[in-house]
């Protein structure tokens, strides 16, 4: 995996990348949105408690598929309160603290969820680069002219 953080656009607002590139042959896990509901069915009243459960549930799902936090390539989160943004962002950044390749991230404010006590929902996509795919990663972008530029399907970035 490779984080994409172009210098031609503003830097990300926190610990994430604007995009991520996955090499061909990667194995992918996509989670459903996780709500702050514990295994015993309880829902903490605090946003921080719900976020902790969401991320813990995500770790269990990834472990079931033989992956972990370092394999996350995208996080999407939905919050009901603008005032919870700093707390969520700090929790997300702490959750990603061991990631060498930063994932892409989307964060939205919504009116609510299926039950009024839920304050946050988080889902991720993770990818594990297989050994044979890792060796092909460098070949995905060979040096030289871009054939899509030559046939008019991609703007010529060299002219910018």
The count of strands amounts to: 7
Structural class category: alpha+beta
Gross morphology: globular
Level of helix content?
A: 10-25%
Radius of gyration equals 18 Å
Instruction: Report strand %.
Output: 15-25%
Q: What's the N-to-C terminus distance?
A: 27 Å
Q: Unreliable stretches, pLDDT < 50, 5 or more residues?
A: 136-143
The residue-averaged pLDDT reads 87
Could you provide a short overview of the structure?
This protein is α+β, with helices and mostly antiparallel strands and 160 residues long. It has helices at residues 47-64, 85-95, 131-136, 147-150, and strands spanning 2-4, 19-21, 27-30, 34-35, 72-79, 104-109, 120-128. The protein is built from 4 helices and 7 strands.
Descriptive overview:
The two termini are 27 Å apart. The protein has 160 residues and is α+β, with helices and mostly antiparallel strands. Helix 2 links the parallel strand 5 and strand 6. The protein has helices at residues 47-64, 85-95, 131-136, 147-150, and strands at 2-4, 19-21, 27-30, 34-35, 72-79, 104-109, 120-128. It is built from 4 helices and 7 strands, in the order E-E-E-E-H-E-H-E-E-H-H. The radius of gyration is 18 Å and the shape is globular.
Give the secondary structure arrangement, pairings included.
Blueprint: E1 2-4, E2 19-21, E3 27-30, E4 34-35, H1 47-64, E5 72-79, H2 85-95, E6 104-109, E7 120-128, H3 131-136, H4 147-150
């Amino acid at each position: 995996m490779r984080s994409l953080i172009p210098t031609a656009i503003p830097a990300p607002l926190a610990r994430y990348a604007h995009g991520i590139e996955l090499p061909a042959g990667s194995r992918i896990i996509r989670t459903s949105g996780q709500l702050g509901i514990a295994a015993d069915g309880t829902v903490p009243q605090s946003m921080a408690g719900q976020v902790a459960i969401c991320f813990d549930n995500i770790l269990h799902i990834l472990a079931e598929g033989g992956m972990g936090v370092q394999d996350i390539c995208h996080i999407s989160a939905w919050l009901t309160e603008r005032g919870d943004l700093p707390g969520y962002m700090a929790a997300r950044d702490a959750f990603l603290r061991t990631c060498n390749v930063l994932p892409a991230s989307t964060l939205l404010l919504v009116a609510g969820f299926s039950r009024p006590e839920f304050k946050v929902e988080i889902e991720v996509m993770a990818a594990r680069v297989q050994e044979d795919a890792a060796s092909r990663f460098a070949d995905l972008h060979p040096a030289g002219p871009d054939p899509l530029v030559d046939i008019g399907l991609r703007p010529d970035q060299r002219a910018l």
